[in-house]
């Protein structure tokens, strides 16, 4: 079944412990109002293929952080769904999937593992007395002493990774708007760090209701769509959102909002039946065709505003089968550059 008690824990990071071959989690001890918690962050996979995918951004920007900073220390239950504190790797456009890396690394001479990668983020957080860590996942509590950090009783967070698109044997754990992850706030530095993790075996395309893996039916064999390491065809990114002009309360020089698309594929792509979605899941239907290597500016009407009530926003491009092709996000600060287009890299 999907996560039963999804939520986010906010606390002060004070201690860490590395994963081992026997114990596959990187461990962080957090304190909130004098209470200790252990966050178990998956660093190794026993599934096939065995690699973990990860993305760490040391200067993270996304509208979600404006909601997180308002939270008090402690655990906060979340009802999964859009528009609130829940996160979804596929639907909230938290990061570019093409920038995810895989570990353990199998290249000759590569000795790095996720312990080293995670240390780069958490050692700095532990040494910063003002830092706060936000851990998304599922809470647990046991009557026994904690087997890692020895506090009593043991309590903390697990499932701190993507929680959808699993292989058939793990479909019972699938769900939408219930993904795990970690955000680290350094208030004195005005900086955020984000950590996202998934199993290599998990799919990037999932059903909007069940979170089960789905495959795109729009593209056909021999059309040049790339194939990933699992043999799954990769339509996402064939057309990319590269720029947008948005209107907010702090702008006056933007007469109408626009989204600019770029076709990076070697073929023309028909947009018939495709849609653009904003953070409210409002849809703007597309038409026409983008030749190979060319851009197309989409002029939006008054019925679809790109800026959310929080001041930032997300933009998602979907094909006619409902498969996500690309997605981006922007902050309130980016939206307030009057008259300027936001450039998405």
Account of the protein in words:
The strands form four sheets. A five-stranded mixed beta barrel has the order 1-2-3-8-7. Strands 17-12-11-20 form a four-stranded antiparallel sheet, with no helix packed on it. The protein contains three helices and 20 strands. The chain is mostly beta strands.
Percentage of residues in DSSP E strands: 25-35%
What string gives the helices and strands in order?
EEEEHEEHEEEEEEEEEEEEEHE
Number of helices: 3
Radius of gyration: 21 Å
Q: Provide the residue-averaged pLDDT.
A: 87
Helix content: under 10%
Sequence stretches where pLDDT stays below 50 over 5 or more residues: 106-111, 218-223
Which structural class is indicated by helix and strand composition?
A: mainly beta
Largest beta-sheet characterization: 5 strands, mixed, barrel
As laid out across the biggest beta sheet, the strand order is: 1-2-3-8-7
Number of strands: 20
First and last CA, distance: 37 Å
* General shape: globular
What is the element layout, followed by pairings?
Layout: E1 7-17, E2 25-32, E3 35-42, E4 52-57, H1 64-68, E5 74-77, E6 101-103, H2 114-127, E7 132-141, E8 155-158, E9 181-186, E10 191-199, E11 239-245, E12 258-263, E13 269-270, E14 275-277, E15 283-285, E16 289-290, E17 295-299, E18 313-318, E19 324-330, H3 332-335, E20 342-343
Parallel strand pairs: 3-8
Antiparallel strand pairs: 1-2, 1-5, 1-7, 2-3, 4-6, 4-10, 7-8, 7-9, 9-10, 11-12, 11-20, 12-17, 13-16, 14-15, 14-18, 18-19
